[in-house]
Design brief:
Elements (H helix, E strand, L loop, with lengths): L2 E5 L5 H6 L2 E5 H7 L3 H10 L8 H12 L4 E7 L5 H10 L3 E6 L6 H14 L4 H26 L6 H9 L8 H16 L8 E7 L7 H6 L3 E6 H6 L10 H6 L7 H14 L4 E7 L7 H8 L4 E6 L7 H20 L1
Parallel strand pairs: 1-2, 1-3, 3-4, 5-6, 5-7, 7-8
Helix pairs in contact: 2-4, 3-4, 7-8, 7-9
Length: about 325
């Protein structure tokens, strides 16, 4: 039986798998739970403030409730509250291994951090590279599902989201997940294309409100791009020479300029009409909306989630008005 290790976000999972761990993305446990609010309640009962991102509280509750004894906490390059979160988890007796994506976004600095991580878990670069080659086979399958989404229009936005986000921890079992990806591809290829009027890109952190995908489809729109979920699936890993390059060429934890270059490329390649930028209440990443609107020459609607896992009436109204406007623009052209 492999030992479980919790993740606060995507980390060099190759190191953990090589060291004999079964990685568990705490975000995925939290948001897919039918009783997800109980995880937030656990955190608030333990003193976490109401004015703190629901994800941090959810991760905390998920960690305690699912008997996770060890976690990797990303202290640089992700949520600015993770440092405080892991201090509280340490008080609860949970063993925490810190990891950083250096703000410098310099290949040498990324290599230093990953080598530190390898040393903590006592694994060699060679053995980690073998694991990376194994995991890259699954990443290529996820990439195929992504291509079936925007090239053949056979995958809906929610499926695209789920299959790619699951690559943060491979659903805890690499072999089983590989089989489920292969089965999904076989089934998807038999489908007829989804033809909707408006092609949307979803950018920002994965949503608390999973029903956003179904809702936009009811408005004759289709998400053909999930930005961060795609980055979690490392679509460019196969071209990286080694693990250091792979985690250097990863837009999520680094500066907005690096991220914007990839966004521009995807907007053009996927023929995206507009962007929905999702941000989480009380999250510093909401400020990035200012930069994105300035740098991307495309209509952008910013929506904000908090504790609810369904869209509220106001957000639905804003999405409806935005997509209506885009439909009119397409017809006019």
């Amino acid at each position: 039986m492999l030992k479980k290790i919790g993740l606060t976000t995507t980390v060099p999972v190759e190191v953990l798998v090589t060291a004999g761990y079964s990685p568990v993305d705490l975000n995925n446990i939290f948001i897919t739970s039918e009783d997800y609010l109980k995880y937030i309640d656990i955190a608030e009962r333990d003193g976490f403030p109401k004015s703190l991102c629901a994800w941090i509280k959810g991760i905390y509750g998920a960690c305690l409730e699912n008997d996770i004894k060890e976690i990797v906490g990303v202290v640089e390059g992700d949520c600015s509250n993770t440092r405080a979160l892991i201090e509280v988890l340490q008080l609860k007796g949970i063993k925490v291994y810190p990891f950083s994506f250096p703000h410098s976004h310099n290949l040498k600095d990324v290599e230093i951090e990953i080598r530190k991580f390898m040393n903590i878990f006592n694994v060699t670069e060679e053995s980690v590279e073998q694991t990376r080659q194994r995991l890259n086979k699954l990443r290529e399958l996820a990439k195929e599902i992504d291509e079936l989404t925007y090239l053949e229009n056979k995958v809906n936005g929610f499926e695209n989201h789920i299959y790619q986000i699951s690559l943060s921890d491979f659903n805890g079992n690499v072999d089983n997940f590989e089989n489920s990806l292969k089965d999904a591809i076989s089934e998807i290829k038999q489908r007829k294309p989804i033809n909707r009027k408006v092609r949307l890109g979803y950018i920002g952190v994965p949503p608390m409100t999973g029903d956003i995908y179904e809702f936009v489809e009811s408005l004759d729109a289709h998400f053909v791009y999930n930005e961060v979920q795609r980055e979690f699936a490392f679509p460019r890993a196969i071209t990286a020479k080694n693990i250091f390059e792979q985690y250097y060429d990863y837009t999520y934890p680094y500066n907005t300029t690096f991220r914007i270059n990839e966004l521009k490329k995807q907007i053009e390649e996927r023929k995206i009409d507009a962007i929905i930028h999702y941000t989480q209440a009380f999250c510093y990443r909401a400020v990035e909306d200012i930069v994105l609107k300035k740098q991307l020459d495309i209509p952008i609607l910013n929506i904000e989630g908090d504790k609810l896992n369904v869209l509220d009436a106001r957000t639905k109204l804003r999405l409806e008005a935005f997509i209506d406007m885009l439909s009119d623009l397409k017809e006019a052209n």
